[in-house]
Amino acid sequence: MNSQFALFRIFFGVFLTWHFIALIPYGSELFSNEGLISDPALNPTYGVFPNHLYFWDTPMAVIVTLGIAILASLSFTLGWARRTSAVVLWFMITALFHRNNLTSNPSLPYLGLMLILTTLIPVGENFSLSRKNEHWFMPRWIMPVASFLLALGYTFSGWTKLSSPSWVDGGAIAHLLTNPLARPGFFRDLLLAMPDGILGFLTWGALLAELCYFPLFLNKKSRPWIWVALLGMHLGLILLIDFADLSMGMIMIHLFTFDPKWLKAKTPARIAFDADCLMCNRFLAFLACEDEARLLTFEALPDDREKTSMIVTREGRISRRSTAVIVILDSLGGHWKVLSLVARIIPRPIRDFLYDSVAKKRHYFGSNRSCMIPSAAVRQRIIKTLSALMIALTVSSCAIVERPPGGKHLGTGVAAFREISGSQKSLLQNGDIVAFHMTKKEAMAYLKKGKIQKLPYQLFDYGHLALVVESNGEKKLLQLAMKQAANIDDGLEYLDDKKWAIFRPTSDLDEKRLEEFVTLSLRKLSDPKESYDYSGVLGIHNRTTTPEAPEEIAHEYTCVTLLQAALHYAGHKTLSVHRKGFLDIVTPAQFIESKKRE
Question: What's the rounded Cα separation, in Å, for the pair 419 and 593?
């Protein structure tokens, strides 16, 4: 219900904004002391409501009132101070009605009802400027109360129409089409060309639907059908009447009372996406939260395939670009399925143009070029493809994050590394560890921009490691990251705009063995799709970090375990891994603060 309510808030807020803006040209005539009702005491409800427009009702006062209502509507739309905005809007709508009772229409009570109910719903829903509330919930009684009052109101409206001759004799719609408020156009002309019997049938059908709303509402099976029937009636009225306020207000209460269970998600879909695209990963995490039926599965697009579009496979059919998005929304069910139906109305060339415009800029948010742990939502989705045993292993491994065996040894006589003071490139030598870091505030700034590859910098002391190696007489950085092969593409100039520290092994290195490891690892870890150890980053099982012979060098590592293996192969042995790599998330600090093994 989180996203459904958030979308309703946006639609409702946009409607209210449009409503009050549209009133500005007519505000003085309708509500001021120079307008239609110059004396507020002429209203039957005068004195019932504490109304500032009773004593301050100049044209300027009306404009100020409408201006405040517009600002409150915008605030409500954006989800900023939503509860306060709802109270202000409720007061303004009520005040305007009591200043001119002739503006009454059946949707006004429901507008007030929805505004009051939104003040009772916790803040922090999706798509809002307020601080996100991870424990947001929709009070269970809100929807039943609103639905009950809507049903009661419709049936009461139908009952009152029984005393109207035009409704009883079937002429109401014919009168409506000849009313000055009728909207000229194709639909009006089409109905006017129909026989009177058809118009009478439509009139009695609308009357019967209103009368039967409450009894049909009481039955779960008939409830969605009567809801759709009356929603369709108001959509039809918008096409026929050049005054949409009444029907738009009723459409809002219909949206508010929509039950997502009416359109359950039923069909599984597999989504292939660009794993290097952070915007795609954020979208993935969002889908994982919205997919309550757990029907969506995710996989990365192969690196040899063009990554300009998501690819969605459902029931053997492959969809791309905007059609893929529509299929995803349809697979989520509920309000998302409704949006997918609306999206299908848009011509495909226009949809694809909009999709391509966003897709071309998706890497504006960055790409996964640093060693990272997946976000919580994505990690949860990945874990769901593993067995229950692996879930238990991953959870247990988190308990020992950042702790080397035996505790932290940096600065002691048995330390595996010593820190070199000063971050100067001239101090770097073959075999040094470069540990990248940033402040928590800096990391959070990146995360707020959607750059989730900076998450390790927020969680740990260091976010990424690289090893200084000699290659053709130049110092290079041996690195590995998700969706990347092991490489020495970057020289020391890579460090110019970054924060880093130097950690030097406390053992002498066999430089020939180190060079041999680099050569072999670049060959063995040359496939970007296969080089990264995902089971290791989840703390389930790390590949061997103690190779003694070339054949023992693994085909996949993390950015940390690659460097562990390299230094071990070159003669620098460390006690930095728990239980031979099982149940252990090996972090940068765990490695550089470890103990040297004699």
Answer: 10
- The closest alpha carbon to 173, from 233, 217, 114, belongs to 233
Give the whole-angstrom CA distance, residue 394 versus residue 167.
68
Query: Could you tell me if 99 and 199 lie in one domain?
Result: no
Q: Are residues 296 and 416 in the same domain?
A: no
Residue pLDDT, tens place only, 247-297? 999 999 999 999 999 998 888 888 887 665 656 667 777 888 888 888 888
Task: Let me know: does 11 contact 127? Beta carbons within 8 Å.
Answer: no
Q: What is the pLDDT of residues 311-326, one digit of tens each?
A: 888 888 888 889 999 9
Last residue of a domain, one of 138, 173, 193: 138
Q: Does residue 393 sit in the same domain as residue 480?
A: yes
CA distance 520 to 526: 10
Strand pairing category for 269-273 and 311-314: antiparallel
Find the domain containing 148 and state its range.
140-258
On whether both 560 and 586 belong to a single domain, the answer is: yes
Q: Which residues are paired to 270 by β-bridges?
A: 297, 313
Residue 15: alpha-carbon gap to chain centroid: 23
* 8 A C-beta contact, residue 431 and residue 567: yes
Using DSSP, how many helices (H) and how many strands (E) does the chain show? Answer: 24, 12
**Same domain (yes/no): 145, 126:** no
Please, are residues 498 and 435 in contact by the beta-carbon 8 Å criterion?
no
Q: How many domains does the chain have?
A: 4
Q: Give the DSSP H/E element, type plus range, for residue 66.
A: helix 59-78
d(CA 19, CA 23): 6
Residue where a domain terminates, one of 194, 227, 258:
258
Q: Is the CA virtual torsion 363, 365, 370, 376 positive or negative?
A: negative
